[in-house]
């Protein structure tokens, strides 16, 4: 963990652990349901990346905005989404966030500031820039946190959006979750530069690279970027270096990486690192940690049972929201 631990209260640190356990439990349940044929289409899991989502959202206010990605369950949970409505959405039920129409890659909760996951690689980046412009024109002190992956860093929207945000000093935090692979393409083969964060130099804004499996490091970086943005100093590019244990999607056979590589990253598991810190500093006992873990899995099971009991959408309502 970070040598310089942020000024977080014991309650906030426990909240971080609760969030990370809930993300892990949710993702594992979705993986199980997909294998049983209860979740259709595909899904993209972020098991192993929990610290980035949890740490980043802990550093923001409830009235701030986020844009997400196709791998966005953790972002939704960290932003305070209702687990029951999330699970219902994945199972295609009427009670889901998007009435069962969006599924895994399109969950949105506008009321909480979650402007939605996005099935288009890099699709949330220009949306976040537009949100930043809206915030500035309204004279608000909110910020928009934009999640995207290393693959999206090579999309045109990445360069165009950051350039616009920089010249207009927009309150946007561009947070790249570098999990080492854009689908099966290693980030080392996809770009010549050593880091994604160093691209910030081209746009005259700060760029910072952090350990994405260190929840405190992510928190510190996003908190600093948010303070800059609220002060009218413009955007920041943050690269959080992390790793997904599962494949890109459920159709991924994982032939492009070795088991040894996956095991090496699992040794740096973000939840294990946080629980070790909490024990070592007498902030939580092992028994308390285990209770928190059990509570997270129980909450996910309750969400699943809610979804099972929820009604299917009425076929006659299929075109609602399609035509104005």
Query: Helix/strand-derived class?
Result: alpha/beta
Question: What name goes with the CATH superfamily?
Answer: Thiamin diphosphate (ThDP)-binding fold, Pyr/PP domains
The largest sheet, given as strand count, sense and whether it forms a barrel, is: 5 strands, parallel
How many DSSP H or I helices? 11
CATH topology: Rossmann fold
Strand order of the largest sheet: 1-2-3-7-6
In summary, what is this structure?
The chain is an alpha/beta fold and 324 residues long. It has helices at 10-35, 50-58, 73-78, 83-90, 124-138, 156-167, 187-190, 215-230, 259-266, 270-280, 286-309; strands at 65-67, 144-149, 172-178, 181-182, 185-186, 207-211, 236-241.
Characterize the structure shown:
This protein has 324 residues and is of the alpha/beta class. It has one domain (10-305): Thiamin diphosphate (ThDP)-binding fold, Pyr/PP domains (Rossmann fold). The chain contains eleven helices and seven strands. The protein has helices spanning 10-35, 50-58, 73-78, 83-90, 124-138, 156-167, 187-190, 215-230, 259-266, 270-280, 286-309, and strands at 65-67, 144-149, 172-178, 181-182, 185-186, 207-211, 236-241. It has a five-stranded parallel sheet with strand order 1-2-3-7-6, with helices on both faces. A two-stranded antiparallel sheet has the order 4-5. Helix 4 crosses helix 11 and helix 5 packs parallel to helix 6 (156-167). The mean pLDDT is 95.
